[in-house]
Amino acid sequence: MNLNSFIRYALLSITASILVNPASSKAIEKPNVLIILVDDLGYGDLSSYGAKDLKSPKIDSLISSGMRFDSFYANCPVCSPTRAALLSGTYPDIAGVPGVIRTHPQNNWGWLSPNVTLLPKTLKEAGYHTSIVGKWHLGLEEPNTPNVRGFDFFKGFLCDMIDDYYKHRRHGINYFRENHKEIDPPGHATDLITKWGIDYLNERKGKDEPFFMYLSYNAPHTPIQPPQDWLKKVKSREPGISEKRAKLVALIEHMDDGIGQVINALKKNGQYKNTLTIFSSDNGGQVNVGGTNGNNRGGKQDMYEGGLKVPTCAVWPGKIKASTRNNLVGITMDLYPTVCEAAGAEIPSYVEGKSILPTMLGQVQSLKRDLVFVRREGGLRYNGQDYHALRRGNWKLVHNTPFDPYELYNLKDDPLESNNLANTNREKFNELSTALRLHYQRAGKTPWQKPSKK
């Protein structure tokens, strides 16, 4: 570590101690960190975010215990890229994951770059024990597996999704692992992830070493397969609800109950008060399976707001004021430096996310920056091309598929993105288009295919 890096690390450590206890300069223990990321949960699919036919008391209680973010974005409208942004702290295409990592090479659109330092490795260097429980989705083989990329403990599955919540296979392959060992546990995947998360918290009880757990649920991703007792309860409570919607609501409510169990375990173990808990979703809800995205256009896969805006909160008892809301425009990659600042960890120089810890702690914070959203995808709809959006202030440039014209919206005047200004405000259109082209050039330097063996 050079002198400048040492000084920065020391300042971060001192700052973190003061933030935890402003009245004392005495060194105190670092916070545990719990990031709960759920899969395809739409902006309108929690009761606290406006759902009328759905009850999510556990997540709602978590949100009310801290700060709710009303303008938080996922880095991408689908899975892998957002997860790459979360764990690398930078844009997905800069991290080598512009699209979804999948089993078959002809349908794979990412390779996690060796040039990014994942969050668990950074936190390990700051004295943390690190774990991922649940969905990984950033590589199926070494070196891009959780343990090799910095996690001390992994229990979950490597692949993009599972074809059955009970049988746990993808394309007939078992991707479930405990560290490097293949496992084949019985039970609903949501229940397993909940149980394994609680097991990890119990194992860390009483340890001096702080922990980081990335609790990564695959619910409510397809297949929409809730336990039958949860589905029966929803149908009984919501007369007239469609079968499609009832199944999704039941899957979300079942997950909500599991998250509540994890939070209760934190409290029972005496870990809750010194844990920074962050909850978010990897992208918007999938509309064609019953997902809702609040008063936003589109959903999963779309570069419109419904595909990108996600329910998000941060809880840190005694530090983040309960029952607060904030409209700061944040994005998934911001969570990396935010956690590092709270933990007193050194933030790698390449990280492009911005710490929003000051906002969480009640300070006024202004982030003037462009936000770029990217996805590359195959199939006839995309044909291996990428498509993007760029937000600058209230202006948003949208390229919703590779073969559609670019669109321009003013989100302040037109939050539903219904009035395309691409032809009537050419000056702003050209300004944002130029900025996006520069991002294309920069991201093009990062390979996103598995390197050939020499």
Describe this structure in words.
- The chain is of the alpha/beta class and 454 residues long.
- The protein has 2 domains: 9-20 and 29-367, Alkaline Phosphatase, subunit A; 371-443, Arylsulfatase, C-terminal domain (2-Layer Sandwich).
- The chain contains 12 helices and 16 strands.
- The chain has a 10-stranded mixed beta sheet with strand order 7-6-5-4-8-1-9-10-2-11, with helices on both faces. A 4-stranded antiparallel beta sheet has the order 13-14-15-16, with helices on one face. Strands 3-12 form a two-stranded parallel ribbon.
- Strand 14 (386-392) and strand 15 form a beta hairpin.
- Helix 2 packs across helix 7 (243-268).
- It is globular, with a radius of gyration of 21 Å.
- Mean pLDDT is 94; it is low at 1-12 and 14-27.
| Helix content, binned percent | 25-40%
- The CATH architecture designation of the largest domain is 3-Layer(aba) Sandwich
The count of domains is 2
| End-to-end separation | 33 Å
